[in-house]
C-alpha cells in the first residue's frame, strides 16, 4: 500500500513538473508570437493606407476613378483581423479577471470596428461601381 502511495505521489510530482515546464514554455513563446502577429497587423494597415493614399493622389492627378475606399477598407479589415487574432492569443496567458474584462472589451471593440468596415466595403462595392467617381468625391 505504501509503495502504491509513493508511486502515485511520484507520478503526481512528475505531472506537476511537466505542467510547469510546458507552462513556462507557453509563457515564454506566446508573448513573442502575439507581438509578431500584432506587427503583421500594423504592417498590413500601414501598407494598405499608403497604397490607398497613392490611389487617391492618382485620382486627383489623372481624374480617373480608383477604388480608394475599397483598398483602404480591405486593408483596415485585414489588419484588424490580425490584431484580433493577437488579442485572442492573449487569453492563453491571462492571470486575473481584470485582464479578462479588459481583453474582452478590446476584442468587442475591434470586432465592432471590423463589422463596420466590412459593412462599408460591402456598401462601396454595391454602389461604387454603378457611377463614375472622381477624387473630389472622396
TrEMBL record:
<dbReference type="Pfam" id="PF07784">
    <property type="entry name" value="DUF1622"/>
</dbReference>
<dbReference type="InterPro" id="IPR012427">
    <property type="entry name" value="DUF1622"/>
</dbReference>
<keyword id="KW-0812">Transmembrane</keyword>
<keyword id="KW-1133">Transmembrane helix</keyword>
<keyword id="KW-0472">Membrane</keyword>
<feature type="transmembrane region" description="Helical">
    <location>
        <begin position="33"/>
        <end position="57"/>
    </location>
</feature>
<protein>
    <submittedName>
        <fullName>Putative membrane protein</fullName>
    </submittedName>
</protein>
<feature type="transmembrane region" description="Helical">
    <location>
        <begin position="100"/>
        <end position="119"/>
    </location>
</feature>
Amino acid at each position: 500500500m505504501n509503495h502504491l502511495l509513493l508511486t502515485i505521489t511520484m507520478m503526481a510530482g512528475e505531472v506537476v513538473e511537466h505542467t510547469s515546464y510546458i507552462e513556462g514554455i507557453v509563457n515564454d513563446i506566446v508573448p513573442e508570437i502575439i507581438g509578431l502577429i500584432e506587427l503583421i497587423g500594423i504592417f498590413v494597415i500601414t501598407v494598405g493606407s499608403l497604397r490607398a493614399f497613392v490611389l487617391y493622389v492618382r485620382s486627383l492627378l489623372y481624374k480617373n476613378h480608383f477604388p480608394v475606399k475599397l483598398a483602404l477598407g480591405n486593408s483596415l479589415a485585414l489588419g484588424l483581423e490580425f490584431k484580433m487574432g493577437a488579442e485572442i492569443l492573449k487569453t492563453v496567458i491571462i492571470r486575473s479577471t481584470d485582464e479578462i474584462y479588459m481583453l474582452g472589451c478590446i476584442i468587442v471593440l475591434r470586432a465592432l470596428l471590423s463589422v463596420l468596415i466590412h459593412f462599408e466595403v460591402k456598401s462601396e462595392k454595391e454602389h461604387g461601381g454603378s457611377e463614375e467617381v472622381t477624387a473630389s468625391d472622396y
